[in-house]
UniProtKB/TrEMBL annotation:
This is Transmembrane protein 68. GO terms for molecular function: acyltransferase activity. Residues 66-181 form the Phospholipid/glycerol acyltransferase domain. GO terms for cellular component: membrane. SUPFAM superfamilies: Glycerol-3-phosphate (1)-acyltransferase. The gene is TMEM68.
Amino acid sequence: MMGLVYISALYLKAYRYYYKINGYTFTPECWKPARYLLACLWDFQARFWYGYEIQGLENIPSEGPALVVFYHGSMPVDWYYLLSKTVLYKKRLICAVGDRFLFHLPAFDALIDCFQIYPGTIETCADILKKGNLLAIAPGGVREALFGDEMYPIIWGTRKGFAKVAMEAKVPIIPVFTENIREAFFTHSFGKKWLRTIYERTRIPLVPIYGGFPTKLKTFVGEPIPYDPTITPDEMATRVNEKMKDMIKTHQKLPGSVTRSVFERFQYLFKLNIPK
């Protein structure tokens, strides 16, 4: 998938460059055709490789703001696939908050611009929502991606910023979880404690990521948690945390297994009546 993302990033750089060398004024609206094309490409790849499904897409509003909070797998391919479904079937873009290292990756500037990915201060995020946009945040971030395991722990720590953003903008929060996301890509436990110490001190993500296995991926979009002016951001964060734990308990077999999730991807083959 990362290869496809880099190809997409290079395509977007060439797309923008074409406009500039021909003397056209490049505006945010110019991204729409390229965004739609990439959404089609990512959606096809998701269905072909992962047998990707989504349940609850109707919970993403067709208009108006909402904060999408999702569990961060080792590689957030499910975000690309949810984004694609939203572009194709809702005709909407989900803006996103990205980790700082993302903005230093070579050739990613056009992709960041096209899909409106932001560093994400509370003020910036609240402003995006107040303008009527959708915004996606993974509270666990890189820490949850690299240091989670097959038991799917929620590693949010004391992060409450997402709740403060939702409360400030007075918008609902939509929880999202993808079954088997930690089996599609994963990190080994060997040396993880040492590597986490380095990460906590430097914020450099040195943990190697493995995978790309054709596991069965299914995204569950939960019902919106409405804005409640009577509770604090801490209480809202706890409410979302508990909802995410409930979604994991309901939709994920624990501990996660690469073998089982690949079998789930191709189990329809075992149901066919193949003549001898």
